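Lab notebook, bench 4. Continuing the backlog of folding jobs that were queued last week. Each job is logged with the same field layout so the records can be merged later without manual cleanup. Today's entry covers Dual-action ribosomal maturation protein DarP, a 172-residue chain. Filled in by technician R.K.

JOB TYPE: sequence-to-structure
TARGET: Dual-action ribosomal maturation protein DarP
LENGTH: 172
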Amino acid sequence: MNTYDEDFDIENEPPSKSQLKREMHALQELGKQLTELSEGHLLSLDLPEEVLSAVQEMHRIRQREAKRRHLQFIGKVMRKVDSEHIAQQLESLNARHSLNIHLQHQVESWRDQLMAGDQNALQQFIDKYPSVDIQHLRQLMRVAQKEKNIDKAPTHARKLFRYLRDVVLASQ
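JOB STATUS: finished
OUTPUT FIELD FOLLOWS
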């Protein structure tokens, strides 16, 4: 019997150099995603102070090579903190953003159908959202349709969109 095979335990081995590089690049990519967020979204995340200041510093850097080096620095800072927690927060933020985009497209679709005078769409909207003020909705539709027919600025179309969005959001 070979005692070397019996004593070898892969779980006790340190990570390979390639594995360390993959982890480092993943942290740099996470840091890059943070630098692409707006200031408001960045502040909405629960980030450690050191990470937050490093990411905010990136916005002030203009030179390409300096940005590359600073991304490496952000990756180094990220090694010291709970990057999984940050990744989960970022994923949650992206999911909310996708949901908002989907909601906006849905409301735009309702508005377009209603402005086209589709009575079936009107009835479907009323059935789906029973809290809607039907009289107000019909009035907004009429005025928005008139504006569209005389090529006037779509002021009431925007009002219709906002009203539909408020109704849809209130129902969720």
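OBSERVATION: Residues 107 and 164 are 6 Å apart (CA to CA).
SIGNED: R.K.
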